[in-house]
Amino acid sequence: MALDQSALLELLGELKLTDVSDRIRHATETLYQELIDAEAAAFIGAAPYERTEARTAVRNGTRPRVLSTTAGDLNLKIPKLRAGSFFPSLLERRRRVDQALFAVVMEAYLHGVSTRKVDDLVKALGADTGISKSEVSRICADLDEEVASFRDRPLDGSYPYVFLDATYCKARVNHRVVSQAV
What we know:
Blueprint: H1 5-17, H2 20-44, E1 59-69, E2 72-81, H3 99-110, H4 115-124, H5 133-151, E3 168-173, E4 176-181
């Protein structure tokens, strides 16, 4: 479901009145919401308030979901259904941090940053609510599993290699002293 012309003009007017960081957050929030609504319409088989023969479910309001991104905290509305359930593929269940912030937390962990400092770092990147110490620990536990699987992988097979080593010494060449590899 795409925005119509008047909705786009209204959105553009709102964006002009805000500062740059709010513009980016608002535009990102609108984009995420439109993608969620489009996926819900495809899942249900009808747009909101539309009556069709192909409809498989009926909407029953929305539930709020906060997603922390580098653009800021996004307040999204996930459609609820009267029968069955719907969750957008754009989001991950039980995860309120997007992949960009997830990567920042992992990188900070690898560099030895404390969990308290990671929270400050995430807030500085635009996530107003920050990230809890337990969330940082859970993310890092996932990283530990990936590192362990890499470390314990089988190394079967042959690995041909050439080993070269050199040292540089001062030598006299053509009446000049130069650095020479030995």
